[in-house]
Amino acid sequence: MINLDQYIRDIPDFPKKGVVYKDISPMLQSPEAMRFAVKTFIENLKGEKIDKVIGVESRGFFFATLLAEKLNAGFIPIRKPGKLPYKTHTEAYELEYGTDSLEIHQDAIEKGEKVLVHDDVLATGGTALAACNLVEKLGGEIIQCNFLVEIGFLKGRDKLKNYQVESLLKY
Ligand SMILES: O=P(O)(O)OC[C@H]1O[C@H](OP(=O)(O)OP(=O)(O)O)[C@H](O)[C@@H]1O
Ligand SMILES: Nc1ncnc2[nH]cnc12
């Protein structure tokens, strides 16, 4: 049993004043912490079959690829605009500190495939909801959304009320 809280570093006023940024870099530097996080994510899926794991750019990529390998699933990046080379679908979203949009390759998911949506942090939930909308546009079935860190007071869970949400650490 590892206390993952010790691997999350608070950075006040980043990237702008008033935001306390949850930095997962210490976790990424610890193989033990990463292994424990992956094991816990897998346990939380309770044996559900997963065909595709979504990682949301950029910090969602790290654990999404580890999870995809463990689940014998494909990894699908959801990226910021203009980064994916093939035909895409786009979805706009709001962030705790700005607005942006996200894209997915049009052939990334087949109708009926079972999908796990992963990101490092759940804050307002705008990013994750946009990712879920993209998955559903392609006909994917979202089995769970999982996060390393959930910032409770920003109420991201409310935005994701139609989905099963799991986070390893809640602040
Ligand atoms: O729940 P929300 O309010 O939508 O915020 C959560 C998102 O914000 C961060 O990404 P960011 O856009 O900072 O990009 P990065 O991963 O490339 O650093 C984080 O990695 C999540 O994707
Ligand atoms: N406070 C925060 N820390 C890290 N990532 C974030 N994404 C949105 N809000 C964040």
TrEMBL record:
Task: Specify the pathway.
Answer: Purine metabolism; AMP biosynthesis via salvage pathway; AMP from adenine: step 1/1
Using the record's annotation, list all stretches that form the Phosphoribosyltransferase domain.
Answer: 35-149
Q: Which GO terms describe its cellular component?
A: cytoplasm
Name the HAMAP family for this protein: Aden_phosphoribosyltr (MF_00004)
Quote one Gene Ontology molecular function term: adenine binding
The UniProt entry, under Gene3D superfamilies, shows:
3.40.50.2020
Q: What does the subunit comment say? A: Homodimer.
Its name, as the record gives it, is: Adenine phosphoribosyltransferase
Highest taxon of the lineage: Bacteria
The main enzyme category here is transferase
Q: What is its main location?
A: cytoplasm
Q: Where in the cell is it found?
A: Cytoplasm
Spell out the PANTHER family in the cross-references.
ADENINE PHOSPHORIBOSYLTRANSFERASE
Which GO BP annotation is one of this protein's?
AMP salvage
What reaction(s) does this enzyme catalyze?
AMP + diphosphate = 5-phospho-alpha-D-ribose 1-diphosphate + adenine
**What Enzyme Commission number(s) does the record list for this chain?**
2.4.2.7
**Protein family per UniProt:** Belongs to the purine/pyrimidine phosphoribosyltransferase family.
Function, as annotated, reads: Catalyzes a salvage reaction resulting in the formation of AMP, that is energically less costly than de novo synthesis.
